[in-house]
Amino acid sequence: MHADSGLIAGLLVRPWDTLRLGFSFRDALQLRYDLVTDIGIEGVGRLVAHITGTSLYTPQQFTWAAAWDPVRPLTLTLDVVWSRWSLAPDPTARFDITVDGAPLGLGALEADSAPVDLDAVDTVGPRLGVEWRVAEAWALRAGYALQPTPLPAQTGRSNALDSDAHQVGIGVGYSFPDPLALHDAPLTIDLAGQLNLLGARRHAKANREDAVGSLDAGGPIWHLALTLRHDFR
């Protein structure tokens, strides 16, 4: 297997004390695999499978962001993310299989798999956030993000199901002194919950004899996160 490396870069500008503007770039990442399986099956023959492909793909992203403090305990944020899904590779595994069928009175048999074109498009998604520091130690947070789907409706043989996602989250943070007194910086506990609501989407197959058939996809996905953070100063 071969894991990629990619560039991550960012720029922060503070034109005023209450306004921060940022830009970041994250290169695409993916895991390429190349596996060979050689199996001898008694009475049948020898099977050699060469499996290659790409998985765990994340697209190249450009993010423009702003954070504004209209009053001291309140912070408003806005991000716009451009994701280059149009560059996504074929996610399916490629199989090249050879079977020596001599024990069965057959010659060598060969088979391979057909590639799948995702036909993905680039997406642009906004993200909004708010943080209210109700006290020196406490902060309340909420946010919303729209994550458009890069994939078209699945009318052919493939079934890469996806739809536009509306993400809503709330959270609370609490900071307290280091109980071991090793550092002056406080520790922070953050608790957050998120609803990822995938819009209902119909995938009508062009071929009525498709093995899977037409289907609907969508629904909620819930997330809960608890983190402990310590900033070193």
Task: Give the arrangement of secondary structure elements.
Layout lengths: L1 E2 L4 E9 L2 E8 L2 E13 L3 E14 L2 E8 L5 E10 L10 E7 L7 E5 L10 E10 L5 E10 L17 E12 L10 E17 L11 E16 L3
N-C termini distance = 39 Å
* Strand and helix order: EEEEEEEEEEEEEE
- Radius of gyration, in Å, reads 25 Å
Stretches where pLDDT is under 50 for at least 5 consecutive residues are: none
Strand % is over 45%
Taken from the alpha-carbon principal axes, the silhouette is elongated
- DSSP strand count: 14
Average pLDDT, to the nearest integer? 88
- Structural class, by secondary structure, is mainly beta
How does the major sheet shape up?
9 strands, antiparallel
The largest beta-sheet arranges its strands as 2-3-6-7-10-11-12-13-14
Q: Please work out how many helical segments DSSP would assign.
A: 0
Estimate the helix proportion, in percent.
Answer: under 10%
3D architecture notes:
By secondary structure, the chain is an all-beta fold. It is built from no helices and 14 strands. It has strands spanning about 1-5, 10-15, 20-25, 30-40, 45-60, 60-70, 75-85, 95-100, 110, 125-130, 140-145, 165-175, 185-205, 215-230. The strands form two sheets. A nine-stranded antiparallel beta sheet has the order 2-3-6-7-10-11-12-13-14, with no helix packed on it. A five-stranded antiparallel beta sheet has the order 1-4-5-8-9, with no helix packed on it. The protein is elongated. The two termini are about 40 Å apart. The model has no long low-confidence stretch (mean pLDDT about 90).
